[in-house]
Amino acid sequence: MKRKRETEREISQAIVRFEKEFMGRGPLEAKSYIIDDLVLVRLKNVLTPAEMKLAESEEARRGRYLIKQVRQELIEQGRPMLDAVIKGALDVNVVSLHTDISARTGERIIVFTLEKCPNLAEE
What we know:
Layout: H1 4-23, E1 29-35, E2 38-44, H2 49-56, H3 60-90, E3 94-101, E4 108-114
Antiparallel strand pairs: 1-2, 2-4, 3-4
Helix pairs in contact: 1-3, 2-3
């Protein structure tokens, strides 16, 4: 039986790889948490230099909105890969994915809802 902490680390590493390969830049920090039938992933410092400039521009509100829109669309395009990461790590299907990004702090949260609670050993 897989251990919970190992699996959380595996998920974090896979999400960082996804961010680097699919989004073009990986976060500086990633942490995953498995809570019952949820997987919560917290990524820090995910914004590209161009996105940071856009978020700080004179029309920062519009820039932050555009960053959120583009990032949301990209996540939807990459959703099959993200679902496969979770399925591979937990052997449980993903039911839904929810995400948001702060264009102010560069932090992104991804929450996966699972078909059932994964069978993992606690440490």
